[in-house]
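forwarding from the other thread:

> can someone predict this with coenzyme A?

sure thing
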Amino acid sequence: MRIPFIRSGRDYAVEPLRVDDSATLARIHREDFVPSWDEGDFESMLGEDVMFGYKTVEVGRARSGATGFVLARNISGEAEIITIAVARAHRRKGLGRLLMDAVLRELHGARAEALFLEVDEGNAAAVALYRQLGFREVGKRSAYYHSAAGTPSNALVMRRDLR
Ligand SMILES: CC(C)(COP(=O)(O)OP(=O)(O)OC[C@H]1O[C@@H](n2cnc3c(N)ncnc32)[C@H](O)[C@@H]1OP(=O)(O)O)[C@@H](O)C(=O)NCCC(=O)NCCS
């Protein structure tokens, strides 16, 4: 099931991701992730049947591209957030929450069982968002991430039951 269009207040809307969003997704991804994924990476991921995702766009300014996006994968009812990012200029406006809600809604429609994700335990914004949405910690991977300077940090594995 795809959610065609959901309004969020007056300013933003959520729409399904399309392969031709790949350049914009790479631009947003670059703001925060090292190594970042390029346009070709997003094109090939979005070409996979099990992948789906959503973007936020400013209403009336759809041509200026996405302001945030989430990419997820659903394999036989076990789903995973691949990545989520909101452009810095658009944060703390509820977009991250809106994107995650769209994923949860699609997965409920698909009768999926659980949604997993991995997050740097020091990423306070993301951890708070996920906890608010009912994710709980189910594991930890030591020194899973490395900053650009090579500093290691742990990944929390989180799960949200869908049934
Ligand atoms: C994590 C991220 C997607 C949140 O997006 P956002 O649109 O700013 O988040 P929202 O405005 O929807 O906030 C929802 C909740 O998340 C939490 N949150 C968001 N930003 C936060 C911050 N800077 N500090 C603490 N909590 C924060 C809060 O609980 C917030 O709820 P509240 O507004 O009622 O307090 C965004 O910070 C981001 O793109 N970060 C960089 C990429 C990243 O780290 N992705 C996650 C990888 S696992």
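The longest helix spans residues 95-109. thats all i got for now
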